[in-house]
Amino acid sequence: MAYREIRIVGDPVLRTPCEPITDIDDTVKGLVEDLLETVDEDGRAGLAANQIGVSLRAFSWNIDDEIGYILNPHIVEVSQDEVQDGDEGCLSVPGLWYPTERAWYARAEGIDLDGKPVILEGEELMARCIQHECDHLDGMLYIDRLDRANRKKAMRAIRQLG
Questions:
Q1: Angle at 31 between CA 30 and CA 36, to 5 degrees
Q2: What is the pTM for the complete model shown?
Q3: Among residues of the chain, what percentage have pLDDT more than 70?
Q4: How many C-beta atoms surround the C-beta of residue 19 within 10 A?
Q5: Active site residues
Q6: Among 134, 88, 81, which Cα is nearest to 107's?
Q7: Residue 53 backbone class (left: φ over 0; alpha: ψ -120 to 50; beta: rest)
Q8: From start to end of the chain, where are the E strands?
Q9: Residues 25-80 pLDDT 10s
Q10: C-alpha span between 132 and 145 (Å, rounded)
Q11: pLDDT tens digits, residue range 70-79?
């Protein structure tokens, strides 16, 4: 198990869609251990594999004292009527928070390390986490979802951070 360094905006791995996990081997088991260890820190809600430099479809979460992981997640349902529009941040875009609209409820399906089906669902923060991390696995950052004015502010702030 190892705590892994977080990749920062500008790293091409963050913009590359992740590959599905086809074989659950020691490498994937190590990845899950690293995801769980790296997300287990105050202020961290979720962590996608590509944020630690691994282009495989997996993420971990740390919400309401529950830490877990999911492999090959895909969103299968989001609330259409109820949305949330709170500030969102990202470990790969450090220190920047912008209002980002997300569905109030989200449900993802994937598998665990035994290849058994996993359903991850929730409202509010869990829903935001599911959507945010699945975006990462698709090569997308939350700043891509910002309205034009906030995206412009975010891009300016990112350039200033270097």
A1: 100
A2: 0.95
A3: 99
A4: 13
A5: 133
A6: 134
A7: left
A8: 46-48, 58-63, 66-78, 83-90, 93-103, 105-111, 117-123
A9: 999 999 999 999 999 988 899 999 999 999 999 999 999 989 999 999 999 999 99
A10: 10
A11: 999 999 999 9
d(CA 75, CA 108): 4
Q: Specify the amino acid at residue 123.
A: E
Q: Considering only CA atoms, which of 106, 108, 103, 73 is closest in space to residue 86?
A: 103
Phi and psi for 6 in degrees, rounded to 5?
Answer: -85, 130
| Cα distance between residue 101 and residue 109, in whole Å | 22
The candidate with the shortest Cα–Cα distance to 134, out of 33, 30, 10, 17, is: 17
Among positive and negative, which fits the CA dihedral 77, 21, 141, 67?
positive
SS3 91: coil
For every residue of 103-146, DSSP letters joined together read ESEEEEEEE-TTS-EEEEEEEHHHHHHHHHHHHHHTT--GGGGS
Residue with tokens 């479809």: 57
Going by C-alpha positions, the residue among 109, 103, 132, 111 that lies closest to residue 14 is 132
